[in-house]
Amino acid sequence: DGGITQSPKYLFRKEGQNVTLSCEQNLNHDAMYWYRQDPGQGLRLIYYSQIVNDFQKGDIAEGYSVSREKKESFPLTVTSAQKNPTAFYLCASSQGGGGTEAFFGQGTRLTVV
Amino acid sequence: QKEVEQDPGPLSVPEGAIVSLNCTYSNSAFQYFMWYRQYSRKGPELLMYTYSSGNKEDGRFTAQVDKSSKYISLFIRDSQPSDSATYLCAMRHGNNRLAFGKGNQVVVIP
């Protein structure tokens, strides 16, 4: 089955630690995205990548980093610089170019303890 | 002014009623309009996808886009308890960045 796999589903992090969220897709999509979802805030774009080895900051990139070394993988690192990292993180991908919809993974719930 | 405005609700309706959801937007460059359904603690799933103005129907779901008014709607006929979810509108123009509404929580009461 084609799709987007995020892991882990739940993640706990101590304050001051970096943590990496995994996102893998087998849809052969060019573009991949990371969103953060907080109650009452909707989806906010953290980073996106339209092609391998290239990515751009979204609206709330501070305290996050990404890499895009392979077409199918777009890991997100939440660094200790992120002041309020507890949230639901969603990865998505799309074919690229105009006119294509985005498909989402099932999300990772990150909690800072 | 936010790019996309969506009243977060919640919206409660009895089973069998018509659910009406809408979003307004400010960016006239948006060409592609989507509705996603998100169940609790799950990722959003694409429900409807429309290009430019007009109506699109898929079973019990109808999506409408009025670009002149910068207004999109989603109608759910014969609502079922399984339709209880959060519905997010999304839109984009050619640069691949999606702009989302905040989501509207819908509860269908049996």
Structural notes for this entry:
The complex is a heterodimer of chains A (113) and B (110). Chain A is 0% helix and 51% strand. Chain A is built from no helices and eleven strands. Chain A is globular. Chain B is an all-beta fold and 110 residues long. Helices cover 0% and strands 55% of the residues of chain B. In chain B, strands 2, 4, 5, 9, 10 and 11 form a six-stranded mixed β-sheet that branches. Chain B has a five-stranded antiparallel β-sheet with strand order 1-3-8-7-6, with no helix packed on it. In chain B, strand 9 and strand 10 form a beta hairpin. The chains are: A mainly beta (113), B mainly beta (110). At the A-B interface, strand 4, strand 5, strand 9 and strand 10 of A face strand 4 and strand 5 of B.
Label this structure with key terms.
heterodimer; A: 113 residues; mainly beta; four-stranded antiparallel β-sheet; 0% helix; B: 110 residues; five-stranded antiparallel β-sheet
SSE layout and pairing:
The complex is a heterodimer of chains A (113) and B (110).
Chain A: E1 4-7, E2 10-13, E3 19-25, E4 31-38, E5 42-51, E6 54-57, E7 64-66, E8 76-78, E9 87-94, E10 103-104, E11 108-112
Parallel strand pairs in A: 2-11
Antiparallel strand pairs in A: 1-3, 3-8, 4-5, 4-9, 5-6, 7-8, 9-10, 9-11
Chain B: E1 4-5, E2 11-14, E3 19-25, E4 32-38, E5 45-51, E6 54-58, E7 61-66, E8 71-76, E9 85-92, E10 99-100, E11 104-109
- Tell how many strands the DSSP assignment of chain B holds: 11
Share of β-strand residues of chain B: over 45%
- Please state the CA-atom Rg of chain B, rounded to the nearest Å: 13 Å
> Helix count of chain A, per DSSP?
0
Based on secondary structure, the structural category of chain B is mainly beta
Q: What is the multimeric organization of the chains shown? A: heterodimer
Order of helices and strands of chain B: EEEEEEEEEEE
Proportion in helices of chain B: under 10%
Element-level helix/strand string of chain A: EEEEEEEEEEE
What is the residue-averaged pLDDT of chain A? 91
Largest sheet of chain B: 6 strands, mixed
Uncertain regions spanning at least 5 consecutive residues of chain A: none
